[in-house]
């Protein structure tokens, strides 16, 4: 499978990925390798990765606890401290081996340690492959609020290998599918139509679908790397999705949601906003709701919960001049950015979803 050329780096797949990884490590003049994992990827992904890793350089493993609750500046401090303790210099190579938490946090750690050391992202979850590891965004959460601290920084390369997905739990696979559905709804309606029926899904199909999703995201990012304009298309489902995710993250009485699970709910809600704005038909809205509801379980929210989610919208990074901006969709697989929506419309969307 051919590489995908991103902004100043490439996304490589499977065997070619490991070949290019070896070349970068051999030719980069690096002093040492640091591999960031979490408690899951240490067990399930690290042995396979080390088996394929060809290098004469010494390396150290840095393990963090898994889960979104650990995507914090405190965890970064711990990783920075380990790097300092092991005398990592500016020619150290940092490899993030894991899902979205590891690749987001790892990129941020590398981009800030000694004002920036080279890093490579090796996503091991479907979500990280099609979303988190592509596009140059790094960062951590702040007090349960999603991705409030971070910066844009590109890796030396991204290595995507579907073999990492063999041990991935079903809910994590579904989480990644949410972003793939989003890519179809905002940029390629034929892709959405292809994803609607996964009954004859194979591993070969999955690799091609991942490739297509990365291509869609990469093409948007190349046009707008710093999210000044059309990159905001990728935020469909995320304005309300992030608010719902943050609310669950900060509430000890309810279970946390995976990112993709929250985004799927956000897409249903924001599809309803698109319907209320007259951008899509009721038929298309019902199709979106039906497809996503069949995969992602419905959550229960009280009126009080909804208003708490609404209060979290003020922290959304897409806000400008005090306005909450939404990305909505059209019927033909296009997105509309910077859409203002009334509180009444948002409550209507929640009410319809919960009905």
Automatic annotation (TrEMBL):
<keyword id="KW-0170">Cobalt</keyword>
<keyword id="KW-0456">Lyase</keyword>
<keyword id="KW-0547">Nucleotide-binding</keyword>
<dbReference type="Pfam" id="PF01761">
    <property type="entry name" value="DHQ_synthase"/>
</dbReference>
<protein>
    <recommendedName>
        <fullName>3-dehydroquinate synthase</fullName>
        <ecNumber>4.2.3.4</ecNumber>
    </recommendedName>
</protein>
<feature type="domain" description="3-dehydroquinate synthase N-terminal">
    <location>
        <begin position="62"/>
        <end position="174"/>
    </location>
</feature>
<dbReference type="GO" id="GO:0009423">
    <property type="term" value="P:chorismate biosynthetic process"/>
</dbReference>
<keyword id="KW-0862">Zinc</keyword>
<dbReference type="InterPro" id="IPR030963">
    <property type="entry name" value="DHQ_synth_fam"/>
</dbReference>
<dbReference type="GO" id="GO:0003856">
    <property type="term" value="F:3-dehydroquinate synthase activity"/>
</dbReference>
<dbReference type="GO" id="GO:0046872">
    <property type="term" value="F:metal ion binding"/>
</dbReference>
<dbReference type="InterPro" id="IPR030960">
    <property type="entry name" value="DHQS/DOIS_N"/>
</dbReference>
<dbReference type="Pfam" id="PF24621">
    <property type="entry name" value="DHQS_C"/>
</dbReference>
<comment type="function">
    <text>Catalyzes the conversion of 3-deoxy-D-arabino-heptulosonate 7-phosphate (DAHP) to dehydroquinate (DHQ).</text>
</comment>
<dbReference type="GO" id="GO:0009073">
    <property type="term" value="P:aromatic amino acid family biosynthetic process"/>
</dbReference>
<dbReference type="GO" id="GO:0005737">
    <property type="term" value="C:cytoplasm"/>
</dbReference>
<dbReference type="GO" id="GO:0000166">
    <property type="term" value="F:nucleotide binding"/>
</dbReference>
<keyword id="KW-0479">Metal-binding</keyword>
<dbReference type="InterPro" id="IPR056179">
    <property type="entry name" value="DHQS_C"/>
</dbReference>
<dbReference type="InterPro" id="IPR016037">
    <property type="entry name" value="DHQ_synth_AroB"/>
</dbReference>
<keyword id="KW-0520">NAD</keyword>
<feature type="domain" description="3-dehydroquinate synthase C-terminal">
    <location>
        <begin position="176"/>
        <end position="319"/>
    </location>
</feature>
<dbReference type="InterPro" id="IPR050071">
    <property type="entry name" value="Dehydroquinate_synthase"/>
</dbReference>
């Amino acid at each position: 499978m051919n590489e995908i050329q991103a902004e100043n780096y490439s996304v490589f797949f499977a065997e070619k990925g490991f070949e290019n990884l070896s070349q970068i490590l051999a030719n980069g003049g690096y002093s040492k390798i640091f591999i960031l994992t979490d408690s899951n990827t240490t067990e399930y992904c690290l042995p396979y990765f080390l088996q394929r890793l060809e290098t004469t350089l010494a390396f150290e493993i840095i393990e963090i606890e898994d889960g979104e609750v650990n995507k914090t500046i405190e965890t970064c401090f711990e990783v920075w401290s380990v790097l300092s303790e092991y005398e990592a210099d500016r020619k150290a190579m940092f490899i993030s081996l894991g899902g979205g938490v590891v690749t987001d946090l790892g990129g941020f750690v590398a981009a800030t340690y000694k004002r920036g050391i080279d890093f490579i992202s090796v996503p091991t979850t479907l979500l990280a492959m099609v979303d988190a590891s592509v596009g140059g965004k790094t960062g951590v959460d702040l007090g349960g609020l999603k991705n409030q601290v971070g910066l844009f920084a590109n890796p030396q390369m991204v290595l995507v290998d579907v073999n990492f997905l063999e041990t991935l739990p079903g809910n994590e696979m579904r989480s990644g599918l949410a972003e793939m559905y989003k890519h179809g709804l905002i940029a390629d309606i034929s892709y959405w139509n292809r994803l609607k029926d996964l009954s004859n899904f194979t591993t070969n199909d999955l690799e091609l679908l991942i490739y297509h999703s990365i291509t869609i995201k990469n093409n948007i990012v190349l046009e707008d790397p710093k999210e000044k304009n059309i990159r905001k298309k990728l935020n469909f489902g995320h304005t309300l999705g992030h608010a719902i995710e943050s609310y669950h993250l900060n509430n000890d009485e309810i279970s946390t949601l995976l990112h993709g699970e929250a985004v799927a709910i956000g897409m249903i809600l924001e599809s309803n906003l698109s319907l209320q704005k007259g951008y899509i038909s009721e038929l298309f809205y019902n199709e979106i709701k039906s497809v996503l509801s069949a995969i992602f379980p419905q959550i229960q929210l009280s009126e009080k919960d909804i208003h708490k989610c609404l209060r979290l919208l003020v922290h959304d990074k897409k806000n400008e001049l005090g306005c909450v901006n939404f990305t909505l969709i059209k019927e033909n697989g296009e997105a509309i950015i910077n859409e203002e929506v009334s509180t009444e419309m948002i409550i209507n969307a929640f009410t319809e979803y919960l009905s």
